[in-house]
Amino acid sequence: MSVADIAIDCRQPWLIARFSGPRRMLSWSPNRPGFSLADTVAWLEVTNADVVDLTDPAAYLRARLAAAGLERAVGLMTARDVRRHHLTRSTVDGIGAVALVTAGLTNGERIGERCHDPALPAVAGTINALVHVSVPLTRAAFLEAMSLAVQARTVAVAEAGIRRGGAVVTGTGTDCLVVAAPSGPDPAIHAGLHTAIGEAVGAAVLSATRAAVAGWVADQTGTAP
Length: 225
Known about the structure:
Blueprint: E1 2-3, E2 6-11, E3 14-27, E4 34-45, H1 48-51, H2 57-67, E5 74-78, E6 86-92, E7 95-103, E8 108-109, E9 127-133, H3 139-160, E10 163-164, E11 167-168, E12 171-172, E13 176-181, H4 196-221
Parallel strand pairs: 4-5, 9-13
Antiparallel strand pairs: 1-2, 2-3, 3-4, 3-13, 6-7, 7-9, 8-12, 10-11
Helix pairs in contact: 3-4
Pfam family, one: CbiZ
Organism: Prosthecodimorpha hirschii
Protein name: Adenosylcobinamide amidohydrolase
C-alpha cells in the first residue's frame, strides 16, 4: 500500500512505513526520541509473553529492530494488532499530510487525573501515530505540528466517550507520535491552527485516529466485520 511517497508494509509483528528518502522526524520514540533523520518508521506488535517482566522496553525494541534489519528506523511498540492500522491523507491549499495510526485503549487515562483502577491489563493498549507533512518545517514548526497532532488525537479519543475508572479517557499512558517532513530550503516557520499545514495535519490525524479508535471499539464489542 502506498500514498504519495510513503509505502506501507504490514507483516506481523511489523508495520513499516518507508519514505522515498530521509525525512526529518520529531517523536518520543523509545529508541530514537527527539529530532532524528530516518527514512523508516516501524511498529512492533508485542504480546504479553514478550513484555512480561520487561524492565527496559527501549533496549528490547532496539534489539528487535536490529534483528529485523531496522536499526535506523524510528521504532514504536504496541499490543494492538498491527493489521488494524488506518491511513488517511488530507490536502489543504496544496499542503499534504498523511497519517498512519494504530489504536488500543485498554490502559486509557484522563489528562491530569491518573487512573488508580487496579484492573490494568497485562498488555497495555496504546495509540501510535505517524504524520508526514509534504513541506519542510523549522524546528518551531515541528513543535507546533506535534502539538496539533496530539490535539487531534485527543479530540478523537474524547469523542469516543470511553471510560476507565469512571473518567472519560483522553489518551493512554503509552501513546507515541511521530511528525515527519522532508528537508529542504525555505522551511515553513508556522504550523498552527491558522495555517494550511496545521489544518492538514489536524484533519489527517483526526480522521485516522477516529477510524482506529472505532475499529478498536468494534473489536472489543464483537461488532467488527
